[in-house]
């Protein structure tokens, strides 16, 4: 449960400008039709967009940079605030944590960022193309893994606090500007929007399968289905790169026993090839199917965390116009 | 945060000796900078500085901790470079990783081992452990196949084993020469010559994928139950940590859930061979 506070938009902008002096603040800005996180300075504070669904870049990229030298000591970061994280990306952290904070082999680079970065979630006040979080039983607002929440409603800013880290930041904000405490219940006007948006997404996706029950559909799909749908795939790997829950990477060697961890994708040829040349995923349709097996069978079998949040980014990103929702609807209707 | 080790950082080992096993296979003896302990069947990630990193299962006895052997077949870019190494060079090692052979399951059993080519490397390490626990075993039969007599590795190992009471060995080659007095044909043909007391036996298979496949089928035909066939799977284990995804075999990460599996555990996963 959170603690809710309110302040005026100008006061919030001033506070945020203050925070940019000793924090790296990333928040979504709009560029043309898309919006994405950018490093915010004083001049950009007023351009931040609130409650707009889904920055193009998934939160994952802050915690697992596309390419990182994992040999040098773990770098000390300037305090980082990532503001405007949608609920789906916060849910996705469960699976990333299961991999990278794993007790036996924690990735220190990920762990440090996870510990240090302050995450400010945001409710989605409308839905974007291909958003379908509700078909996974998720809501279009954060309910875990955030330190604070921020929402802009009728030119008033609502802040909510969930963790000690969030509480510390709130104190800093209070040092700059006064806040009104509203209690621990979700404010009524916020709740109204939440329900409205949830219904809207449900309505947009009413023909989709219930993704909590897709495992057997994917498992039993006739092989021809994969062969047919893969025809438009070019193995670019965009779906994995953009996916908030894809975890795969490659270790690259550099002189001096250095290792570079670079994000990778099972869609690339040679992903599973062994030295002797055998490659279980040699054929493109096998690679294509592997993505769905991974999301709907392998990960759910092994981890409690959800392996697809319904963010829809992979649909937007696909240059072959492959739409996982269309594919899975077809498989469900066949089955 | 408590001080944890960097999971990607290798420790150093020095190459002490290179032994030619066959035209394509060499054994590398390494001296680790610190005591190195592993269980038989577990694997390591070996780094050739600036070139690459690849998984290998040590072929030496886990009872020796100041040295270890890795037997490597020339198969690609990195292994070709490995074959050109001279003693004194320093390499990197991460691990050991994974789940090796469950020796406690072998107690009081007959162990039938089917191996081919360079697949004898992990098996040699296992054999050293089996020799150590000979008292607790019924018998061990090693069936080994190579392409030609020249390709047969660890030539002394066979005579050493044959001297032991409970050990028996059989070899076959695909192509014999005039001096070859043993079997001819693929490794699985040797299974026709083995007598096993099925209820008290387990089988271990390690070799190239085709041999693993046909070997397993043959063992099933003989009557081995799925859960008594132990397979050492070769997949693209890259990080060794159950993260990078390259060694996924269905729901398993071979690097952590394996590399040793019973057939029972993996038979329903796609594309295992
Ligand atoms: S699979 Fe697609 S919809 Fe699901 S989380 Fe990944 S990018 Fe989003
Ligand atoms: S195997 Fe493919 S779908 Fe699964 S996490 Fe890796 S890149 Fe993503």
Characteristics:
heterodimer, A: 335 residues, alpha/beta, 8-stranded mixed sheet, 12 helices, globular, B: 273 residues, Elongation Factor Tu (Ef-tu), domain 3, Rossmann fold, 2 domains, binds iron/sulfur cluster
Task: Report on the architecture of this protein.
The complex is a heterodimer of chains A (335) and B (273). Helix content of chain A is 37%, strand content 19%. Chain A is α/β, with parallel strands linked by helices. Chain A has 2 domains: 3-204, no CATH class; 211-334, no CATH class. In chain A, helix 1 crosses helix 5 (164-176). Chain B is an alpha/beta fold. Chain B has 2 domains: 11-97, Elongation Factor Tu (Ef-tu), domain 3 (Beta Barrel); 103-232, Nucleotide-binding domain of ferredoxin-NADP reductase (FNR) module (Rossmann fold). Helix content of chain B is 18%, strand content 32%. Chain B is built from 6 helices and 15 strands. Chain B has helices at 77-83, 120-132, 155-162, 209-222, 254-257, 263-266, and strands at 11-22, 25-32, 43-48, 52-56, 68-73, 90-97, 110-116, 139-146, 167-173, 183-184, 201-206, 229-232, 248-249, 252-253, 260-262. Chain B has a 7-stranded mixed β-sheet with strand order 10-9-8-7-11-12-15, with helices on both faces. Chain B starts with 10 loop residues before the first strand and ends in a 7-residue tail after the last helix. At the A-B interface, helix 4, strand 10 and helix 10 of A face strand 4 and strand 13 of B. The complex binds iron/sulfur cluster (SF4) (2 copies). One iron/sulfur cluster binds at residues 242-245, 295, 308-314 of chain A.
